[in-house]
Amino acid sequence: MDDETDPAPASAAEALSIIGRQRRLAQQTVPSSALLFLVWGSAWLVGYGGLWLSSDDDGPTAPAAVLAGASDEVLGLAANSIAALVVGLLYLAGGAMWRATGMYVLGAWIALVGAGSAYAGMPDSYLWLSLAGGGGMLAAGLVELVRGRRATP
Amino acid sequence: MTELDPVIHAQARLRVVATLASLARDDRIAFPRLQKLLDMTAGNLSTHLRRLEEAGYVTITKTHEGRTPATYVALTGTGRVAFETYTATLRTVLGGAS
């Protein structure tokens, strides 16, 4: 080889094993979706679950909405539903962009949960987001965990 | 025996190219991150990257994040093709030997 500081691999087999090793190392740069889903799932489960437990359906009301004639119930339902829809759409977009099937499916599920939560009424909308939303994320996290384990022997 | 690309067929440069090729197409990696993955000194890695840049296999982007200078490294299309040809040649060599 032309430069003695960087010698050629001893054999073709060694070159291939170098490539394999680096490929596994580079996997460290991929963020763990299992971890992200599990953390967010727990946060939704606990957060929305806490809101459901503590809600006496007389939360604060945005003054502008009162002027517009919306009731507390409608506001609460819209806030929950829209929040979940936004998260669902972001996950759908992210899943499509990075070709991450798990993220895409979870996005569709969260969007459906958001739409469905509007029919649950208040305060059950919180429970719906906690169990179906947070629970869905936890399930997706577990699926990703198992898939990750299988992919790396 | 088929000729192996001398730019890639060197232990350290092969590790650099293999790492970059493992990233998604068009992805770039920060220099310190790459250095950590390769466990090389900054000077060493710079030397190898310069050689690869001369061959047109990598692009090095120098930019600023706030006031801190940041350097990003990416494999070019040419680099990716060269790496794929290189691995294909290795497989042929191994296949032919058995």
Name the structural class of chain A.
mainly alpha
- What is the typical, i.e. mean, pLDDT of chain A? 85
Radius of gyration of chain A: 23 Å
Low-confidence stretches of chain A: none
Unreliable stretches covering 5 or more consecutive residues of chain B:
none
Average residue pLDDT of chain B = 89
Oligomer class: heterodimer
Largest interface: A-B, 21 and 24 residues
What summary fits the major beta sheet of chain B? 3 strands, antiparallel
Describe the protein's architecture and organization.
The complex is a heterodimer of chains A (153) and B (98). Chain A has 153 residues and is mainly α. Chain A has 6 helices and no strands. Chain A has helices at residues 12-26, 33-54, 63-67, 72-97, 101-120, 124-151. Chain A is elongated. Chain B has helices at 11-22, 31-38, 42-54, 77-97; strands at 29-30, 58-65, 68-75. A 3-stranded antiparallel beta sheet of chain B has the order 1-3-2. Chain B is built from 4 helices and 3 strands. Chain B starts with 10 loop residues before the first helix and ends with a helix. The longest helix of chain B has 21 residues, at 77-97. In chain B, strand 2 (58-65) and strand 3 form a beta hairpin. Chain B is an alpha+beta fold and 98 residues long. The chains are: A mainly alpha (153), B alpha+beta (98). Chains A and B meet through helix 1 of A and helix 1, helix 2 and helix 4 of B.
